[in-house]
Amino acid sequence: MKIRITRTSWILLAVGIFVILVSSLGAAYGVQQNEKTRLDEELSLAQLRLAKYSPDELSAQQEELESQLAQIESEVTANKAYLSPSIENIEVIEALFVALAEATSVEVVEINSSSLTSKEVEEATFSALPLNVTIEGDVPNLISFVRELSQEFPTNVVESIKMNIPEVIEGEEIEEPSATIQLLIYTYQGD
Q1: DSSP for 98-149, written as a single string
Q2: Which tens digits make up the pLDDT trace of 9-20?
Q3: What global pTM score does this model have?
C-alpha cells in the first residue's frame, strides 16, 4: 500500500513545520530577552554600588586594611616569640620556683613533673610541662606565691590548688600550712 500525499497535505505539513519553528524561535527569543533584562538590571545595580566608592576611598581602605594586617602579623610574631622559651630543663624551672618562694617567704618542699607533652589550642601546637609543686608557709604567703606564680610564668595554667591548713590544738606542735599546686606551663612549639 502506497500512501499518497497530496499537494495540499504538503503545504499544510510545511506550514505546520514553519509554525513550530517560528514558535520555538519566539520562545527562545523571549527567554533570551528575559535574561538580557535581568543582566541589565544586575549591571545597573553593580554600577550604582561601584559609584558609591571612589578610587581614593578604596585605595585608602586597602592601605588601612594592609596596615592592620601588618600590625596583626607583627603581634602574632611577638606572641610566638614570647611563648617560645624552652621549658624542657626542670632544673631551671626549679631554680625559678625557689627564687619565687624566697621572695614570697614560703618554702618549696617538692617539685615533680611528668614528661613534656604537646597540646593543640585553636590550631596552634604548644609544649606543655605538667608540674606538681608543694610549698609550705603562712597562709597569706601561700596565696601570695600562687598570685606571683602567674606573674613569673604568664603562660601557665593552674589546674588545681590543694591547701592544707592544720587545726591549732593547744599544747601540740602543729605542722605548717601547705599547698600543692598542679599546673601546666605552655610554650609555643612553632609552625
Answers
A1: HHHHHHTT-EEEEEEE---EEEEETTEEEEEEEEEEEEES-HHHHHHHHHHH
A2: 888 888 999 999
A3: 0.52
